[in-house]
Input
Amino acid sequence: QVQVLESGGGLVQAGGSLRLSCSGYGRTFSSYSMGWFRQAPGKERESVAISWSSGSTHYADSVKGRFTISRDNAKNTVYLQMNSLKPEDTAVYYCNFKNEYDYWGQGTQVTVSS
Output
């Protein structure tokens, strides 16, 4: 059974940092894109950062220069380093592994206090 599990959310003050991790189990994900999405209350889920198997990455404009996505294919794991956090970054963060199949994590809450 394939599982995708996130960790690393929490409460942090504005200007602080958090690191999210997401690991996949049950198959190899090296050919998959690995991404982070977020959903704030009352808003639609939006893409935050994506890492493609080619090594290229894409960031939402709102997080460029503050967030960094990285992946370790040997560990089936993707990370999101979040620096200079702002209250508007508060959301539930979801990881996504996508190729011929689409796998989502359960979500982890990130709350940034002002």
The mean pLDDT is 97.
